[in-house]
Amino acid sequence: MPSIFDIDVMKSDGQHYSLSRLKGKTMLIVNTASQCRFTPQYQELEILHKKYEQQGLVILAFPCNQFAKQEPETDDKIETFCQVNYGISFALHKKIQVNGSETIPLYQFLKSRAKGVLGSESIKWNFTKFLVSPDGQKIQRFSPTTSPMTLESQIIEYLSNN
């Protein structure tokens, strides 16, 4: 059975990034959008990033335009928007598809390992979150309405068990 650490993703600059580099880290993976009512969650993601990065938390943000076309901009413009409006210092990745035939392998993996409401695999909206344990074995899915800060206790638990 493949591991999350066998997957590569694309950074916003087009460079391949192997998730194998994140073995032993706690990952919070989020599909994002700049014109969504949940966009202010970037601020909470940045708070978590600054607070726990040194302890092993890595936030992986993947812009996505699949929901009401709420992320229409280019990767460069998205990055500028996030830095100017939310001061984010965690990495943004290349804009992706989270559902359908062009779903990237990471999201195929996440959706198969952590089902949504009523066992559904599809992502329902922007800012769906996946929290991945440092060994990659435990994956939890959280809805767009879940505030990133409410995940703090689970993050601390994963970081302390590392």
Count of strand segments: 6
Per CATH, the superfamily is Glutaredoxin
CATH class: Alpha Beta
Relative helix content: 25-40%
Class from helix and strand fractions: alpha+beta
CATH topology: Glutaredoxin
First-residue to last-residue Cα separation: 22 Å
Number of domains: 1
Using the CA coordinates, give the radius of gyration.
14 Å
User: Please, how many helices?
Assistant: 4
What would you say the CATH architecture is? 3-Layer(aba) Sandwich
Q: Regions with pLDDT < 50 over 5+ consecutive residues?
A: none
Mean pLDDT: 95
Q: Assign an overall shape.
A: globular
H and E string: EEEHEHHEEH
Strand percent estimate: 15-25%
Task: Give a written overview of the molecule.
The mean pLDDT is 95. β1 (8-10) and β2 form a beta hairpin. The protein is built from four helices and six strands. The chain has a four-stranded mixed β-sheet with strand order 4-3-5-6, with helices on one face. The chain has a two-stranded antiparallel sheet with strand order 1-2. It has one domain (4-160): 3-Layer(aba) Sandwich (Glutaredoxin). By secondary structure, it is of the alpha+beta class. The relative contact order is 0.22.
